[in-house]
């Protein structure tokens, strides 16, 4: 992790009619950081990520992603990021290698580089025997690991992961986080949303969202110290309880 800021937001807000999905969120993310965006389902995590990826236009506020303005530099932002949605994002009726070749082509990789990277990817994942299998026939955990690897095939500055470990078993979740660590070691910034509070422990820093508002931002260790907690579940419970008391 370096001191270079690759994501900067200032009072970023998204409204849907009278409903405010994200309310004036402000934070910075540094190059090579694993940055967790935590909260319960419906807290505004996915909405925020879509704005940062250029998939949804903010209602107000400002942001820069990889140095590009969120309003005027959308196409340049897309070339500098990878994205993995919470719903599996590869084509299930294509083989493993066909997916790699297809998305590598979209990312602008040459045939020579794509061949090298594709071979290296399947070897790293231990999927040599599955390379010619349809992705739809793979177990969910393998699909998720392949989807993540394809999202960083073009070596983006930032990869956005939206609930990447939802529905997979604990062992596969741990293996998936090993891939995240490897990406961060290579200088890729990882922005990950999750509702699994134990995964917060794997991040350098986290934000905790409650009802579209950032209620806390710091390292897991410091947040636990701040709230006299032993787990991130306890921290989130205190934040949610505080928000409910304020609403009442």
UniProtKB/TrEMBL annotation:
SMART domains hit by this protein:
AAA
Q: Is the keyword ATP-binding assigned to this protein? A: yes
Q: Spell out the CDD domains in the cross-references.
A: ABC_subfamily_A (cd03263)
> Ranges for the ABC transporter domain?
7-236
Alphabetized InterPro entries for the sequence: AAA+_ATPase, ABC_transporter-like_ATP-bd, P-loop_NTPase
**Pfam families per UniProt:** ABC_tran
Transmembrane intervals: none
Entries under PROSITE patterns matching the protein: ABC_TRANSPORTER_2
| PANTHER family listed in its UniProt record | ABC TRANSPORTER G FAMILY MEMBER 20 ISOFORM X1, ATP-BINDING CASSETTE, SUB-FAMILY H, MEMBER 1
Mind listing the UniProt keywords for this protein, alphabetically? ATP-binding, Nucleotide-binding
Q: What is this protein called?
A: ABC transporter domain-containing protein
Domain of life of the organism encoding this protein: Bacteria
